[in-house]
Write a structure and sequence with these properties.
Blueprint: H1 2-39, H2 51-71, H3 78-85, H4 90-101, E1 107-114, E2 118-124, E3 130-136, H5 163-183, E4 191-195, E5 198-202, E6 205-206, E7 209-210, H6 222-238, E8 242-243, E9 252-254, E10 258-260, E11 267-268, H7 274-291, H8 299-307, H9 313-317
Antiparallel strand pairs: 1-2, 2-3, 3-5, 4-5, 6-7, 8-11, 9-10
Helix pairs in contact: 2-7, 7-8
């Protein structure tokens, strides 16, 4: 009698606990949605009212397009692709073999994109999932110009100063940044593994064909996409405690869902140059979406919403 009378009491208590937990989750979701709505309040700039700003932003857009296009490496034929494949040195091939032994990579099908810092390859996991395999170059000195993004990051205080060690740390930095961003529910490719100069992540595409970067696509709804970018930017800063530091239409994939990519240079919010990088990111996305016809927020006001204070003269003139 005594035991049977206690059981209903425990069951009832469990139901109350479950109900309370569910209520708590709903409250958290409502608060997060309210925060996003406050962050995405009415635009402060309107195209029809800012003809001069429109001209300046479009000029800046054209200059950046010219500069970035000059830096991009395009693979146009089979012979060029073969040259790209030759960058896989013996040590990198050994790293790929070890990733295969660990059942992370089954096989690679070919190159997706190339750049000064890294090549990205398409491949498959043993389970048949498509992978993006990013292999950083260990034979280039381009990383000397990127030290500003890693010096001052407490996660990499003890890295050696030789080229290969720096590249390994850079690859690890991208993996850690992707992990932090994903945990904060920022839309990024899911990181899967990192070994030496190789980062394996989720492939954003279908049947070996990657989705294109935002710059190469026509936006279905620029205003909605702008808001989506702002929500991701806010999560990256306030929840992942990161600043992308190179955010633009060239480092976002459009599916039309938005993915932040190339996040290796992202810095923690307490990095000495974090606010400078954040202000630059905000200006980049403001310029781009304004040129696409979206009603955008004033960069200074957007910066203040994130940081809690307006940008200093030093931040604005760096």
């Amino acid at each position: 009698m005594t035991n049977s009378s206690k059981k209903p009491s425990k069951t009832k208590k469990k139901k109350i606990s479950t109900k309370a937990a569910s209520k708590g989750r709903k409250k958290t979701k409502v608060v997060e949605e309210e925060d996003n709505e406050e962050f995405l309040d009415k635009p402060l700039l309107d195209i029809e009212e800012n003809i001069e700003l429109d001209r300046e932003l479009r000029d800046a857009d054209n200059l950046q397009i010219k500069y970035i296009d000059e830096q991009r490496i395009k693979i146009k034929d089979t012979d060029a692709r073969k040259v790209v494949e030759s960058v896989l040195d013996v040590e990198t091939r050994t790293t790929l073999f070890n990733l295969r032994k660990r059942n992370i990579i089954d096989f690679m099908t070919g190159v997706i994109s190339t750049g000064k810092e890294a090549n990205v390859y398409h491949g498959y996991s043993p389970e048949g999932d498509e992978l993006a395999i990013k292999i950083y170059r260990t034979s280039t000195n381009i990383f000397k110009g990127l030290q500003i993004y890693i010096i001052g990051d407490p996660r990499f205080n003890r890295i050696k100063r030789d080229q290969r060690s720096f590249v390994y740390a850079w690859a690890k930095k991208e993996f850690k940044n992707l992990s932090r961003a994903l945990k904060a529910k920022v839309t990024v490719p899911k990181p899967i593994a990192c070994l030496k100069d190789v980062v394996v992540m989720e492939f954003i595409g279908k049947k070996g064909l990657p989705y294109r970067i935002m710059k190469e696509e026509v936006l279905e709804d620029p205003q909605a996409t702008y808001k989506e970018v702002l929500v991701n930017l806010r999560k990256l800063y306030t929840k992942a405690n990161l600043v992308h530091a190179d955010l633009s239409e060239y480092n976002m994939i459009y599916t039309p869902k938005v993915y932040f990519i190339d996040i290796s240079q992202a810095v923690l919010v307490d990095h000495p140059y974090a606010e400078i990088f954040l202000y630059r990111d905000i200006n980049n996305i403001t310029r781009y979406f304004y040129s696409q016809g979206a009603k955008v927020q004033d960069p200074d006001k957007l910066f203040e919403k994130l940081v809690g204070e307006p940008p200093s003269d030093q931040v604005k003139t760096f």
